[in-house]
Design goal:
23 strands, 11 helices, alpha/beta
Length: 456
């Protein structure tokens, strides 16, 4: 067989658009400076190989004739992971798990393999570690069933042969950036290789009803390396977040064709692997200082789960011409906006002050309901007045200083009452929607001036 001709093609890293020449702006997604150069081997035109499924009958179906049955779901043994997936693993789905190096992606999936292998055939394919390295990590986690098969390979064609021969129910690919196809002439991890290998794995998952987990590395911006089309091709995208030097990890779903994308799972990294955190609110509030200014507890909703977090703020006069503002765990732009509202609507002179805002516990929150907590923490630190430790607050703050309603107010109040808080400051317009306020004092506020008046 004659070798193909090497040609240079430019790919857009965001959407996978191909071009024969470099362009500043991608015609497909309109992003700037996303084209990368790759050398690929152009092969003679031929018949496209159908990896799985065989020759299917070309037949259309009426929508009324389609049998509407729920896809079979398999429990992973982790309630937190099942919640994020929408109730468990869907048969024949392709799941992408992304995260920083060393965050615990491989450990989590190996523990999932251990739970699934008790009743199902599982194949763990590693392109980064040897069999001995995987065995060392497995010994730290515990004992494994012989239903778990290990295979170290980076060649996609050989991986396909092993999957078709073994016919496992679940396959783990660690990681997609190391897998390459001989039919694509570029290097492993390139845009064309990642797109081709993911497409072939998608065919296997749908054609053979095999659930496939693929691990993806992330860039410095925190997104999965490779083309964004990778995220469009898979059924579910999960991000494993957290500080690798801290013990807690957050599993967040950013795309899910079979469930909600608002759920999160909380894990703790221990010596023997990852352990579920069933009550995240309790651990988030561990070590909360008593009688210190600039500290308040707010309630945020992640899907159907209320999570109580401690918001800390430190406001001090700046020694420089331009004050410094930083935020950890929330959006800095939102913090600057709320400080401007405080200065304009509440009369606090913050223009010459440094401000530091932190969500304690290493979790990241962007829900508007924590606006009131940030405002009260900033005002508390500025005035050097501590907020009662039994007070909890939530509410969205508008540019006019008004405190606006948020959803699921009753669930937030119930969670606060369960953890021992006796006073809840919330938007006044949300009070009529509450059905059970026994055991907790409800304080409704219309604007940030009323809320700040509750400090001290």
């Amino acid at each position: 067989m004659t070798k193909g001709k090497k040609v240079t093609i430019y790919f857009c890293q965001s959407c996978g658009y191909e071009s024969s020449k470099w362009m500043g702006q991608c015609p497909g997604c309109k992003e700037w400076n996303t084209f990368v150069e790759e050398s690929v081997e152009k092969k003679a035109a031929g018949k496209v190989k159908n990896v799985v499924g065989g020759n299917k009958e070309l037949k259309t179906s009426k929508i009324s004739e389609i049998d509407m049955q729920d896809k079979e779901r398999t429990q992973t043994g982790f309630q937190e992971l099942d919640r994020v997936l929408g109730g468990g693993i869907v048969l024949g789905s392709l799941v992408l798990v992304g995260g920083d190096p060393g965050i615990g992606k491989s450990t989590l999936l190996l523990q999932v393999c251990r739970n699934l292998a008790e009743s199902k055939e599982v194949l763990y394919i590693s392109g980064e570690e040897s069999l001995q390295q995987i065995k060392m990590r497995a010994q730290r986690i515990g004992t494994f069933s012989d239903n778990l098969q290990l295979f170290c390979e980076t060649n996609l064609e050989q991986i396909e042969q092993v999957i078709e021969r073994q016919k496992p129910q679940t396959v783990i690919i660690d990681s997609i950036q190391t897998i390459y196809s001989e039919e694509v002439g570029s290097a492993p991890g390139s845009v064309s290789q990642v797109r081709e290998t993911t497409g072939r794995l998608l065919q296997i998952a749908k054609g053979m009803d095999i659930t496939i987990f693929i691990v993806g590395h992330v860039t410095k911006e925190g997104v999965v390396a490779g083309p964004r089309v990778l995220e469009h091709m898979v059924d579910t995208v999960l991000y494993f977040e957290g500080d690798r030097h801290a013990s807690y990890r957050i599993l967040r779903g950013v795309k899910n064709r079979f469930g909600s994308t608002n759920e999160i799972g909380v894990f703790e990294m221990r010596e023997k692997g990852l352990v579920e955190v069933e009550n995240p609110s309790e651990y988030m509030l561990n070590g909360k200082p008593q009688g210190a200014s600039g500290s308040v507890v707010a309630c945020s909703m992640e899907g159907t789960r209320p999570i109580l977090v401690e918001i800390q703020a430190l406001v001090c006069h700046s020694n420089f011409g331009i004050p410094r503002r930083t935020a950890a765990g929330t959006d800095l732009t939102r913090v600057n906006l709320l400080m401007a509202v405080l200065e304009k609507r509440a009369g606090l002179s913050l223009a010459t002050c440094d401000a530091y805002v932190n969500i304690a516990g290493g979790i990241r929150m962007n829900e508007p309901a924590i606006d009131l907590g940030i405002v009260m923490a900033l005002a508390s630190s500025f005035r050097e007045k501590a907020i009662n430790e039994k007070i909890i607050c939530f509410g969205e703050v508008g540019l006019s200083g008004e405190v606006r309603a948020v959803n699921m107010a009753q669930q937030r109040v119930t969670e606060a009452k369960k953890l021992g808080f006796d006073t809840c400051i919330l938007p006044k317009v949300s009070i009529p929607g509450l059905t059970d306020t026994k055991g907790i004092k409800i304080v409704g506020v219309e604007n940030i001036r009323e809320a700040i008046g509750k400090i001290g």
